[in-house]
User: Which sequence fits this backbone?
């Protein structure tokens, strides 16, 4: 869903000589306030250090990771593309269709992502329906090591045959590790070669004796150069039939199968909570496909994203990933094609002792200690179920009935588990109130996307007008806050007054198809900062915000086969995660409107206080394209520390459309400096197109 950018309802801006008075209140946004005409050069920010409007939930800095278009498994394989596309992802596997289960669209007897020797050597005419001069290829669904298929190759007269995977990216000096499972009937040997198109092989490993039952064969090599035309060749020679299955190629420095460079890039974010396995994918995912020995797990066709899912990354790998980042887990159970029983067994596998049946299975899989996952959701966007092409909408009575069954099954496994219900948007907001009239709810999920117009899926692959993009994206937090305000207002008296209820489990400024690099610019960092302000201003109603997504597919980190890009949104997350207090303070801002939008205040400010009461964090967004603003800053009730400097953290770029390329963060980053401030109030100049956090030490 892509709502239009609009002026927020219930949040008007007082315009006097093109200035506005914006007061941060616990309900969020800015409220109309009486203001007298002021000199045109007056810009001010006032913080009341004695007026706490809410507590900052660390969960507002949450993230999503979903099995979708290269987020986790870079080896994407689409139904209509015989040889697939490897985009890079969290999982370090470099081979596509490594278990030979994705079919044979070319009709050459070779699994989709692989290429027979005859094609590579320009003798394709010799191959007819998988049969060559002295060889034959076919996909064998009766004899396999893992999943449900293997690549079979038959050779005669001591001839040889081989299959290739092409288009691999290698990095100079990097070590790579390979293995494959082989067996044979007859006699002969096998080998693997690593090479580049048009060059001699980098390395070759021979396997002189292939066993008559499945065995694992390994090889390693170091790439002598950078290339995006790398190739891997698995060959056999002899008389008889050879079976090839569960091949793997990874960088040698992978961490438990995950990209080490990606893990290291994400650690500084200190992500508090990660939602998994989706998103829409959650409603077609069956968790048991993703446990046990990876090489024996089945591949599954994802009807949600029209691609193959290798299931190399499941709940155990996800929890390993989350533990590496120091993150809690938020699990979305399968509502559309799953059952309460399946969800309860998942909770038992994750959280129960090894004396229980599924706890015992977890221990057998190498994880003796329970994971202790405390947050479980019943479905994703349940009103529409990502399936509006089949039916208009789910019925609230059906959802409530099934929710009770899911919650009972999950809490039977772990009575302390929190179970989240799925609300609107998407769909009419009456769904939320109707749900609360039928049952009590601990947490209520909502998805909020902004962006311009309707996306045309695969056709929207590039931002064409960067000026237009900047001006709209920096204004989208107003649209986000309008939608969030409508969610809260629609709850009416059903909303609890003693705790926050709403969890925004997906949000993003969505402009391009999810299948491409979203090309996030500096304005996306300003967007994300504005959303953080909205979430914290509404801290009494909102407990969680989870960005869509963490890696690729609108990700704050983009990952290619060999490199990582830290987008501007990454640095917004980094800035706020480490320079935000635990209590939200009343903050008012007097400033001009932007020149390009008469309804958009140039500045957006939010102050928070540290838990020990010694630091005020003042976050200020300057949305202006080319105008810096000097503001007078007052902090009521605050005694400035006499011996501490003012610490400044500025997120900015070389211009308003700046973006980081892969492998460098020089164009958009956070710069730190310290200044001397002797008294309050003081003045500070906020640069154009920037997000700045001032850390002011002192005491009440």
Assistant:
């Amino acid at each position: 869903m892509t709502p239009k950018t609009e002026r927020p309802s219930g949040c008007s801006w007082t315009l006097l000589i093109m200035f506005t008075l914006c007061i941060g209140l616990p309900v969020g946004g800015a409220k109309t306030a009486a203001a007298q005409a002021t000199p045109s050069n007056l810009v001010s920010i006032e913080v009341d250090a004695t007026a706490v409007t809410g507590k900052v939930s660390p969960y507002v800095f949450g993230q999503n990771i979903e099995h979708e278009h290269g987020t986790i498994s870079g080896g994407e394989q689409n139904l209509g593309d015989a040889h697939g596309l490897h985009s890079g992802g969290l999982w370090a596997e470099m081979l596509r269709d490594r278990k030979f289960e994705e079919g044979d669209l070319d009709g050459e007897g070779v699994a989709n992502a692989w290429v027979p020797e005859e094609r590579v050597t320009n003798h394709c005419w010799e191959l007819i329906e998988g049969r060559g001069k002295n060889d034959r290829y076919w996909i064998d669904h009766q004899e396999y090591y893992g999943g449900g298929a293997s690549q079979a190759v038959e050779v005669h007269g001591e001839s040889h045959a081989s299959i290739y995977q092409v288009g691999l990216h290698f990095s100079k000096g990097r070590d790579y590790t390979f293995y494959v499972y082989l067996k044979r009937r007859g006699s002969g040997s096998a080998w693997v070669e690593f090479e580049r198109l048009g060059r001699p092989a980098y390395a070759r490993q021979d396997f002189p004796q292939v066993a008559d039952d499945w065995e694992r064969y390994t090889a390693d090599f170091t790439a002598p150069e950078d290339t995006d035309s790398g190739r891997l060749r698995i060959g056999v020679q002899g008389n008889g039939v050879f079976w090839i299955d569960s091949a793997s190629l990874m960088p040698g420095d992978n961490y438990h199968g995950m990209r080490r460079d990606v893990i290291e890039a994400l650690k500084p974010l200190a992500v508090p909570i990660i939602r998994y396995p989706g998103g829409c994918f959650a409603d077609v995912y069956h968790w048991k496909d993703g446990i046990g020995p990876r090489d024996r797990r089945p591949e599954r066709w994802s009807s949600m994203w029209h691609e193959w899912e290798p299931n190399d990354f499941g709940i155990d790998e996800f929890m390993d990933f989350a533990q590496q980042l120091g993150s809690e887990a938020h699990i979305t159970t399968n509502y559309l094609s799953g059952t309460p029983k399946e969800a309860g067994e998942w909770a038992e596998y994750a959280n129960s002792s090894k004396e229980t049946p599924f706890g015992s299975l977890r221990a057998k899989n190498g994880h003796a200690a329970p994971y202790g996952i405390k947050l479980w959701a019943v479905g994703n966007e349940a009103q529409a179920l990502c399936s509006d092409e089949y039916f208009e909408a789910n019925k609230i009575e059906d959802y409530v009935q099934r929710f009770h069954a899911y919650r009972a099954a999950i809490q039977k496994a772990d009575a302390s588990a929190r179970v989240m219900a799925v609300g609107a948007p998407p769909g009419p907001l009456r769904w939320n109130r109707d749900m609360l009239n039928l049952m009590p709810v601990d947490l209520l999920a909502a998805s909020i996307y902004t962006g311009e117009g309707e996306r045309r899926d695969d056709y929207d692959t590039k931002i064409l007008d960067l000026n237009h993009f900047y001006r709209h994206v920096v204004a989208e937090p107003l649209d986000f806050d309008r939608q969030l305000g409508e969610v809260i207002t629609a709850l009416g008296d059903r909303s609890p007054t003693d705790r926050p209820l709403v969890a925004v489990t997906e949000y993003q400024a969505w402009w391009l198809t999810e299948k491409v690099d979203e090309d996030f610019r500096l304005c996306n960092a300003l967007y994300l900062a504005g959303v953080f302000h909205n979430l914290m201003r509404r801290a009494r109603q909102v407990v969680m915000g989870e960005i869509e997504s963490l890696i690729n597919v609108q990700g704050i980190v983009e990952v290619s086969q060999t490199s990582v890009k830290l987008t501007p949104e990454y640095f917004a997350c980094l800035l706020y995660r480490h320079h935000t207090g635990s209590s939200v303070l009343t903050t008012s801002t007097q400033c001009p409107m932007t020149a390009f939008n008469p309804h958009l205040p140039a500045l957006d400010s939010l102050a928070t206080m540290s838990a020990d009461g010694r630091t005020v964090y003042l976050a200020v967004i300057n949305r202006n394209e080319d105008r810096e603003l000097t503001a007078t800053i007052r902090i009521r009730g605050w005694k400035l520390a006499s011996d501490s400097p003012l610490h400044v953290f500025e997120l900015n770029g070389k211009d308003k459309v700046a973006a980081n390329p892969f492998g460098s963060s020089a164009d958009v980053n956070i710069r730190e400096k310290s200044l001397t401030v002797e008294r309050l109030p003081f003045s500070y100049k906020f640069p154009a197109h920037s997000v700045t956090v001032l850390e002011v030490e002192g005491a009440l």
